[in-house]
């Protein structure tokens, strides 16, 4: 095994430091880009923070039976403001965003509790990785894992084939597109067996990608797979809300 050299570590620190100089942390809001009070720790100004729909429950709670993962921890509903932040990270190369959002996600895990063996980012396809140059899920997972002192297993999952765009597909279509698209490489099987995995993605919409990853991890013997994301869709949220509504509207039987 090759040791990471002190020089490599120094360079990483130096790069971090330079980025902090270029984009002074917490000086500009990640969302509206207005200047903000530096005492705000997660880079989101009070105005934007108020407009984000922060979640205090599992958005998939009402539908967990349909999925291979055991729970979903999501900081907020995927609305206008979280979308803006994630577009910055995914489409505009603003990778420094991962630092603040990764810390928020780590805080979410602390609030929810639970013990985990390691964090595993949802992998990008090789083509997407080549085009974008980085995997945003991996950047978020790296920041959150560092904050929580958890190992980051970047090699525990691989995307074995390219998949068609999922954007306009229904949940059922997504499932068949993604079937068998992820797998645990032979070299990672031993550590995955019996592990409590925290699977990390930036956004969870229908849950099909996280489900396909959880199926692969559990096939390889993972004991549990919990999903951690920054935002999840309003669809998942409103289904849960609808169910709550339903229950509260039910009249007592005569
Ligand atoms: Zn703002």
Fold and architecture overview:
With 254 residues, the chain is α/β, with parallel strands linked by helices. It folds into two domains: 7-51, no CATH class; 53-246, Rossmann fold (3-Layer(aba) Sandwich). Helices cover 44% and strands 13% of the residues. The protein contains ten helices and six strands; from the N terminus they run ααβααβααβαβαβαβα. The protein has helices at residues 6-22, 46-51, 80-91, 97-112, 126-132, 136-148, 171-178, 189-192, 208-219, 234-249; strands spanning 71-77, 118-121, 158-159, 182-183, 196-204, 224-232. Strands 1-6-5-2 form a four-stranded parallel beta sheet, with helices on both faces. The protein has a two-stranded antiparallel ribbon with strand order 3-4. Helix 9 links the parallel strand 5 (196-204) and strand 6 (224-232). Helix 4 packs across helix 6. The longest helix is centred in the N-terminal third of the chain and has 17 residues, at 6-22. The termini are far apart. Residues 29, 31-32, 34, 45, 47-48 line the site of zinc ion.
């Amino acid at each position: 095994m090759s040791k990471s050299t002190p020089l490599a570590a120094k360079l990483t620190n130096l790069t971090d430091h330079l980025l902090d100089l270029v984009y002074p942390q917490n000086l500009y809001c990640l969302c509206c880009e207005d200047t903000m009070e530096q005492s705000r720790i997660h880079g989101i100004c009070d105005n934007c923070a108020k407009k984000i729909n922060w979640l205090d429950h599992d958005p998939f709670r009402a539908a967990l039976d349909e999925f291979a993962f055991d729970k979903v921890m999501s900081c907020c509903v995927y609305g206008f403001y979280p979308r803006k932040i994630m577009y910055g990270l995914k489409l505009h190369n603003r990778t420094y965003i991962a630092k603040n959002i990764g810390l928020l996600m780590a805080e979410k895990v602390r609030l929810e509790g639970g013990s985990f063996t390691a964090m595993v980012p949802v992998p990008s396809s090789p083509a997407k990785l080549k085009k974008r140059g980085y995997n945003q899920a991996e950047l978020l997972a790296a920041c959150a894992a560092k904050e929580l002192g958890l190992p980051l297993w970047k090699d525990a999952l691989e995307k074995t084939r390219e998949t068609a765009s999922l954007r306009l597909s229904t949940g059922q279509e997504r499932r068949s597109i993604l079937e068998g698209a992820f797998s645990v490489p032979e070299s990672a099987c031993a550590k995955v067996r019996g592990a409590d995995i925290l699977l990390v993605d930036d956004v969870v919409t229908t849950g099909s990608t996280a489900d396909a990853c959880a199926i692969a991890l559990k096939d390889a013997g993972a004991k549990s797979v919990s999903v951690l994301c920054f935002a999840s869709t309003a669809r998942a949220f409103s289904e849960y809300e609808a169910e709550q509504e339903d229950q509260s509207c039910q009249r007592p039987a005569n």
